[in-house]
Amino acid sequence: MRLAEIRRYPVKSLRGHRVHEARVEPWGLAGDRRWMVVDAGEGTAVTAREVNRMLLVGAEPTPTGIRLSGADQEPLEVAEPDPARQLRVQVWSSHLSAAAAGSEADAWLSQALGRPVRLVHLDDPTRRTTDPRFSREDDRVSFADGYPLLLASASSLAAVNAAHRERAGEDAPRLTMTRFRPNVVVEGAEAWAEDDWRVLRIGGAVLRAVKGCARCVMTTVDPKTGERGKEPTATLARIRRFDGATWFGVNLVPDTPDVTIRVGDEVEVLDAVEPGAGPVRPTR
């Protein structure tokens, strides 16, 4: 197996981009989801689940911060804000503080998204813990949904597309990996083999596979148009439905941070369980 793609998302729920290499930090890839859009009133995370057009807004890292683009507006350079200007924010069950990016960034994004929002930066990524049911006490995560990295398999995507064509016909549009927003994509494994992995090595980085990824409505939003449809949920519901959810991908936690991984790196499974159990998921 080898590492086929590395994808990074500087701002949670905005458009991401592919890179050739990235440093693995304890809370995720360097530069991944360290920024977040929040509601201007409550400080709760605003995501593409409810504001689909977020997927059409770009965010590229710069030496001093990020560059926002798209939404028929002039691009905006945003510097990393002063850590002294903290806001209380919420992402899922996590309550923490983050640095306010400032009024110019807030106004740009509010216009782009059609609602009053603010932009924040996680200046100290040690503030947010992962779910203790599936990880360790000292594990940390940035503004990703729950865990530092998400892995997906090219073979598993091919299996989804095969099932999709079987149901919808050979002319059905191909479903792309972009919909699933992984950080790392591996190729050379059997479809769904990642369900069974518990520890793996990507290049020089060792990572724990702690939980399968239950997929939400966000995967049904076309990342090119921002329009919502029924796929891939309709297909996943036929072939990957467990415990009332549909599953694609595996959440990872780094055990050897500050290692740089590169496209083409060897991927080796260091520990696995017997096949057939399905993805790691909450017990009831």
From TrEMBL:
SUPFAM superfamilies in the record, alphabetically? MOSC N-terminal domain-like, PK beta-barrel domain-like
Molecular function terms, GO-annotated: catalytic activity; molybdenum ion binding; pyridoxal phosphate binding
Fetch the InterPro entries from UniProt.
MoCF_Sase_C (IPR005302), MOCOS_middle (IPR005303), Pyrv_Knase-like_insert_dom_sf (IPR011037)
Q: Which Pfam families does the record match to this protein?
A: MOSC (PF03473), MOSC_N (PF03476)
Q: Where is the MOSC domain?
A: 123-270
- This chain's protein is named MOSC domain-containing protein
Organism equals Nocardioides bruguierae
